[in-house]
Amino acid sequence: MSISPLQLAVFASGSGSNLEAILLAIEAGSLPHVTVAAVISNKKDARALKRAQSRNIPTAVLSPNDYARESDYLEALEAILNEHEINFIALAGYLKKIPLPLVKKYAGRMLNIHPSLLPAFGGPGMYGSKIHTAAITRGVRWTGVTVHLVDEEYDTGPILLQKTVPVHQSDTPETLAQRVLAVEHHIYPEALRLFAEGRVTVENRKVFIDPNIPKGISH
Ligand code: GRF
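Output (structure tokens, whole complex):
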């Protein structure tokens, strides 16, 4: 087990509150081995971009829709990742599928956060308030947050962390989303910390977290 500094790219399509939580954790000194080196969005008006720009973090906007061939889109993405020497990717509300060659290249080094207890309420088409509407409609008592590694399919990769969130009878998708999001903001920085501390291994789709904290790190 040894420190493994993350040169991170965050992919975000929307508000970027998870990006903000990661940046605040870095600024507070609780992620000493994580640098957000680039923020990538498919939407030029994504608030996530503004959050990055206000801190002089490089940003890039590119959408698969702007490329005739997926290979061109892939090439453009790879150019940005190479330019910033990215060794780890965090998807944070990114609504486009990552090209397969990139998923393979960053296997075990690409995370996603999903606002439910996967495998419940995940998969293609399950994003945003649809997830919380489905949880409320199904009548579950608990939902939550999942941080998982990214594999070839939507929301199916090995699970790193999960945290439960209660569903109240009076909940609307909006009130539930808010409660879940507050938990997301703790769990995503925590997931990155585990990787940066070199404490994560994956075997046969199971994720193992070393309980020992490397020497010289205080929490
Ligand atoms: C979060 O709920 C995240 O779990 C999901 O997309 C949302 C992104 O929110 N993948 P934000 O842009 O980080 O505020």
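Helices lie at 17-27, 47-53, 70-83, 100-105, 129-138, 173-196.
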